[in-house]
Known about the structure:
The structure is a single chain. This protein is α/β, with parallel strands linked by helices. It contains 12 helices and 10 strands. The strands form 2 sheets. The chain has a 6-stranded mixed β-sheet, sandwiched between helices. The longest helix has 17 residues, at 239-255. The radius of gyration is 19 Å and the shape is globular. The model has no long low-confidence stretch (mean pLDDT 93).
Amino acid sequence: MLLVERQDAVAVVTLNRPEAMNALSKALRAALRQAMVELDADPSVKVVVLTGAGERAFTAGLDLKELSTDPLGMGAANAVDPAENPARAVLACSKPIVGAINGVAITGGFEVALACDVLICSTNARFADTHARVGITPGWGLSQKLSRAIGPYRAKELSLTGNFLSAQQAYDWGLVNRVVEPAELMPAALKLAHEMASIELDMLVTYKAMIDDGYALSMGDGLALEHERSVVHNAMVTPQMVEARRAAVQARGRTQ
């Protein structure tokens, strides 16, 4: 139900329940958590690509069929344990995660997408927050993260109607980085992931944390955090280290 494939310094994690729209069953949630822990601890992996099998769904969120037969299952909607809360499992990974959104990302699936660092989506992708229509309030971060991504007015339009957002509209609203044809989704996601992976792992982890931690603060506190961490990090950088990388940076600039 979960596939993990390594391509040099990039790992591709695929939610593999296409017959159930990659719904997040209890077993799949636990498997995703375990995979993220292992990839985060693996020094040979620098970047993770997260996607769904097939073209219908990235993930439809919690497995409602499973929940209907489990009286304790609704607790997953408010779980804080990353083994039960897949958004937290993704967020707990210190390495960059590229979300390759191949189809619909609905409710809990939308929350998992929002936990990624970069989103590239297929023209087949659509996003929907159906929490209100199901009668459940979000517990994996959607009510807070969506408004910060696209603004409170647009977030309220989506969440208080349950309407679907097309891939193109998601791009226009700044929710996703780019939209590509279905056949180009994984090549585009992998290209971006390998570009990130050409940077040293310590730098990727440090910079990602600086952006994420600062974004959760006010601008003033965020600037203070940047200064504090930058002083510590840059004190370890020597002129020789900068010179060793300068030629590669210049060469890359000439080819892009």
